[in-house]
Amino acid sequence: MGIEKLPVVIVHNLGKMCYRKAYDVQKDACQNILKYIASKDFESIQNYLFLVEHEPVYTVGIRNKQYVEGQDKLKNLGADFVVTDRGGLITFHGPGQLVSYPVLYLGHFNSKKSIKWYVRQLENTIIDTCRSFNVKATTTSDVGVWIEDRKIAAIGIHGSRYVTTHGIALNCNVDLNWFSHIVPCGIEGKEVTSLSKELQRDVTVTETIPHFLRSFQKYFACNYEYKDS
């Protein structure tokens, strides 16, 4: 019996990049995968994992009307404002936050191409990353990953023909004051936290990335290929 070949995920660390440019990078990768799906050349599909630290930006998902109308107030804070096609409501991305965009063909990772499975694996990846810092995180009935009633990571995804875009944002040493101007993900009465706040020391994105990559590889059973970006 042959050994099953693990899927390869190409890791691009984009460094610090504005949201709109990173969004275009995602869309290009997605179109590349969809091209091979259309020709039924599934073996030639390349899967991607983009890591990025954004300049300050508020993003909204599909249910966005109330936030679009109030965008000028948020822009006056010095942040960009972008409407996207992901699920979820409003959130913030900025320096000190590890944002990860897996652009994957689910058929390479799960025989049922299950979105529910995919979201659960993202949650597990974040929980395991936090565990590597001796921080106990969990899921609740509310979206995202939490430490008790404090949200440490947001999840917002989009799927088209079993190809994923958007992803997760883990707070490392982000300035949490940015979140005070919104109700993150539409969840009232809950705090936002970070690894730095929980550990009472500075935890950078650079320090967090190796832990995150190990956790992602653990839950998505893949090999990595690293690309300069």
Task: Please report the distance between the alpha carbons of the first and last residues.
Answer: 38 Å
Question: Total helix count?
Answer: 6
Question: Considering DSSP H and I runs of 4 or more, what fraction of the residues is helical?
Answer: 25-40%
Rg estimate, integer Å: 17 Å
SSE ordering = EHEEHHEEEHEEEEHHE
Mean pLDDT: 92
Q: How many extended strands?
A: 11
Strand content: 25-35%
The biggest beta sheet is recorded as: 8 strands, mixed
Q: Based on CA inertia axes, which overall geometry fits?
A: globular
Describe this structure in words.
The chain is an alpha/beta fold. The protein has six helices and eleven strands. It has helices spanning 19-38, 65-68, 71-75, 115-131, 195-199, 205-220, and strands at residues 8-17, 47-54, 57-60, 80-83, 91-93, 97-103, 145-147, 150-160, 163-171, 191-192, 223-227. Strands 1, 2, 6, 7, 8, 9, 10 and 11 form an eight-stranded mixed β-sheet that branches. A three-stranded mixed β-sheet has the order 4-3-5. A hairpin with a 2-residue loop joins strand 7 and strand 8 (150-160). The longest helix has 20 residues, at 19-38.
In short:
With 229 residues, the protein is α/β, with parallel strands linked by helices. It has helices at residues 19-38, 65-68, 71-75, 115-131, 195-199, 205-220, and strands at 8-17, 47-54, 57-60, 80-83, 91-93, 97-103, 145-147, 150-160, 163-171, 191-192, 223-227. Helix content is 29%, strand content 29%.
Set down the secondary structure blueprint.
Elements: E1 8-17, H1 19-38, E2 47-54, E3 57-60, H2 65-68, H3 71-75, E4 80-83, E5 91-93, E6 97-103, H4 115-131, E7 145-147, E8 150-160, E9 163-171, E10 191-192, H5 195-199, H6 205-220, E11 223-227
Parallel strand pairs: 1-2, 1-11, 3-4, 8-10
Antiparallel strand pairs: 2-6, 3-5, 6-9, 7-8, 8-9
Helix pairs in contact: 4-6
Pfam families: LplA-B_cat (PF21948)
Family: Belongs to the LipB family.
Pathway: Protein modification; protein lipoylation via endogenous pathway; protein N(6)-(lipoyl)lysine from octanoyl-[acyl-carrier-protein]: step 1/2
